[in-house]
Amino acid sequence: MNKFYTTYTSPLGVMTLQADDDGMLGAWFETQTTQPVTLGQYTESNLILMRTIKQLDEYFAGQRTEFDLPLAAKGTSFQMQVWQALTSIPHGQTWSYQDLANAIGNPKAVRAVGLANGKNPISIIVPCHRVIGKNGKLTGYAGGVERKAKLLELEKTR
């Protein structure tokens, strides 16, 4: 399977976008530690990556609240279940880790859900930034808590 990547300059910093023939594999801010060792071939002409850039531009411009992209992230079945549940958190809203655990039908898996959330490779598009602590406080974000706060503020103003 061929992997492709490009970079995207967002209002919150440079991101690396990665896709294969099936869909998006990742979207990382340059400071994230969860990036893969091998990115694949650099390109500016991959259709999935071009659609991703267009949709990210629309998101940051306030013209898009949901992404319509094929997703092909790789992870354990539990991680994939959590990442799928993340896509159901409505734009402008937040869930606690408990809410996320409840959404996957495993209310006692709060810690495991938190770990899976932290391993989400497709930032913004799979909105792990919408998950906060049960007490309403911002918790960790692989892209940086300051970015998480800015993303949530961006979504609340729409």
TrEMBL record:
Q: Supply the name of the protein.
A: Methylated-DNA--protein-cysteine methyltransferase
Domain Methylated-DNA-[protein]-cysteine S-methyltransferase DNA binding, first and last residues per copy: 77-156
Its BP terms in the Gene Ontology are: DNA alkylation repair; methylation
Q: Which domain of life is it from?
A: Bacteria
Q: Name one GO molecular function term.
A: methylated-DNA-[protein]-cysteine S-methyltransferase activity
Record's miscellaneous remark: This enzyme catalyzes only one turnover and therefore is not strictly catalytic. According to one definition, an enzyme is a biocatalyst that acts repeatedly and over many reaction cycles.
Q: Which residues form the Methylguanine DNA methyltransferase ribonuclease-like domain?
A: 4-72
Q: Which CDD domains match?
A: ATase
Q: Which reaction does it catalyse?
A: a 4-O-methyl-thymidine in DNA + L-cysteinyl-[protein] = a thymidine in DNA + S-methyl-L-cysteinyl-[protein]; a 6-O-methyl-2'-deoxyguanosine in DNA + L-cysteinyl-[protein] = S-methyl-L-cysteinyl-[protein] + a 2'-deoxyguanosine in DNA
Q: What does this protein do?
A: Involved in the cellular defense against the biological effects of O6-methylguanine (O6-MeG) and O4-methylthymine (O4-MeT) in DNA. Repairs the methylated nucleobase in DNA by stoichiometrically transferring the methyl group to a cysteine residue in the enzyme. This is a suicide reaction: the enzyme is irreversibly inactivated.
Q: Which UniProt keywords apply?
A: Cytoplasm, DNA damage, DNA repair, Methyltransferase, Transferase
